[in-house]
Amino acid sequence: YPGCVHGTCNEPWQCTCEKNWGGLLCDKAEHACVSNPCANGGTCHEVPSGFECHCPAGWSGPTCAKDECASSPCAQGGTCIDMENGFKCLCPPQWTGKTCQIGTNRCASSPCRNGGRCHALLDGFMCECPQGFAGTTCETRKCRQKIVLQHVFSHFNINDCASSPCKNGGTCIDGINSFQCFCPDGWEGSLCDVGECVCGREEGFWGQCEQQHRYTRFREERCHVMLPMSHMS
Length: 233
Fold this sequence. Notes:
This protein is an all-beta fold. 0% of the residues lie in helices and 37% in strands. Residues 145-155, 200-208 and 210-233 have low confidence and may be disordered.
């Protein structure tokens, strides 16, 4: 014996049915819509198995109690539209699918600027920017920076006088990454390698210095005769 569907069995082949149910096995709906089981404006229709609800747009379920857009099913900023038996998503550009979950060719609109190269991805795109530009769409110009390299000798110093750079008896004074030459009489220059012009009383004449030749490490000069001493008295 199959038993009572919507009721209780007290004796064999005898069912005590629940409210709004009848029949030998309590499987026939009687006035199932009297209690207004359909919510949110749904329309109730009696059927042999009970009732059915015809739900308005945006609602679904056996009693029209389910809000299709309540869970925000549309991704990527899509707009949810309530339908009679479900919902519809209005997707933003470059997105498609029932819930806007499928990306189309994101490079079709050429989003990369300033000569950037677009690479389409499953969830968007990536711009390969040329030199000098950066940003999501290569919209930012980079600033060129001048890099200055500077050696700092604050903790140690080498002896710059070790190679005896001062010539002709000059005295070398070591500094920090530098040196200085103190030259003897008759020599000058940063390395004491330039001869000075020294003129004066010579063989009874007054002289004046005149440069004759100049080389990288030597200068030859002579005294140009001006007047005999007898003419100076």
